[in-house]
Amino acid sequence: MNIQGHPTRRNLLAMTSAGLALSACGRRTGAGAGALVVGSTATGAPFSFLDIKTNQLTGAMIDIAHAVAAKAAVPIRVQTTTFAALVPSLTAHKIDIVAAGILRTPEREKVVAFTDPVYAYGGGVVTRQDQARPIRTLSDLKGLAVGAQVGTRFVEQLAQAGVTDVKTYDNLGDILQDLGNGRIAAGYGDAPILAHRLRTTPTPTLRLVADFQPPSREDVCLLVRKDDPALLAKLNTAIGQIKATEIAAILAKWSL
Prior knowledge:
Layout: H1 9-25, E1 36-40, E2 43-44, E3 48-51, E4 56-58, H2 60-72, E5 76-80, H3 86-91, E6 97-98, H4 106-109, E7 113-114, E8 119-121, E9 123-128, E10 146-149, H5 153-160, E11 166-169, H6 172-180, E12 186-190, H7 191-200, E13 206-208, E14 218-220, E15 223-224, H8 229-253
Parallel strand pairs: 1-5, 1-6, 10-11, 10-12
Antiparallel strand pairs: 2-3, 3-4, 7-15, 8-14, 9-12, 9-13
Helix pairs in contact: 2-8
């Protein structure tokens, strides 16, 4: 019997099912819950940057993410995330994968999981053409005002080398602008990104220091959360299958 105002058992079951469905729609967990969100930056050419013609993110790491995801049969969509927010957004489940010019470091490995490497590089130093001081190691930057990107390995490396006058910036473009305007004496950051920027946007007053030797070369990988080992395994399998073919071709395409 159904008393007015009191749902029947059938209605209760229907209400419970609807509630579960709404709950499932409100969260995205794991590789089987639809397209995974790949976070990347819009200011890291040639690894990732915004193509103003298409208004879409493009670059080597974007191409690699698409190639690896396709091989792993994992649907993805890419969204723009600032560099400093990449790891926090990943751990907060706002994104599921990071694809950018972000280096594998012991500190980051405590927080997130890295796939097998797809590339490796070190830091580069940019100065004005009239800078006469020889710069072969980071120690040679002591006493100079040096710009570095916030949230990167390069800020830490400068501190370890005893460089005390370090100014941090949101992106490398701002570093090069302040360097050109004489506000800093050198910029230190991702060597491939700096080289690409100077190559595609000629700046006669600046130069990438050819004799500089970075303290280390570190791996570039895709990043996932530590609580998603199944996704990590899928991506690693795919990377192993296409690293010598598709990934190598992508790196060559972007002059890496």
